[in-house]
Write a structure and sequence with these properties.
By secondary structure, this protein is an alpha+beta fold. It has one domain. Helices cover about 35% and strands about 20% of the residues. It has a 5-stranded antiparallel beta sheet with strand order 1-2-3-4-5. Helix 1 crosses helix 2. It is globular and about 35 Å long. The chain starts with a strand and ends with a strand.
């Protein structure tokens, strides 16, 4: 399954697939990439969803990623990805939980990472610049 959408007002695209095609521990995991329309993948962000949430990809996760890209834009998502990936604790999910909790307390939620929905993602920059 492949889902794609162009968010022209934020100059980015959202591409989701039920399986990542690579040789790694994430090869069988559903994935969403949010990238710039100019093709510069150094600005792209990849979201790897939990395998058990694969059935939510067309129903919720892809649409939610599109909404987040439309609302927040790629620049903010890229900064979030770099922040969580480079967190000194070494666990992007834990960093993401801390950032999500802090944003919630500040009244600035990150919709795609809401804890009450039980959906977390490993967010990382496509390529470190």
């Amino acid at each position: 399954m492949k889902l794609q959408e162009i968010i022209s007002e934020k100059e980015c695209y959202v591409y989701s697939t039920a399986y990542r095609f690579c040789i790694s521990q994430f090869a069988a995991a559903p994935s969403t990439t949010i990238g710039p329309l100019d093709g510069d993948i150094s600005k792209a962000v990849n979201i790897t969803w939990k395998r058990k949430d694969r059935n939510l990809l067309p129903l919720l996760l892809h649409r939610q990623a599109c909404d987040v890209a439309r609302t927040w834009g790629l620049d903010r998502l890229h900064r979030l990805a770099v922040l969580t990936f480079a967190w000194t604790g070494g666990r992007p999910r834990e960093a993401l939980e801390i950032v999500a909790d802090g944003a919630k307390e500040a009244g600035d939620p990150i919709p795609v990472f809401r804890r009450h929905e039980g959906v977390y993602a490993i967010v990382r920059p496509q390529q470190m610049a």
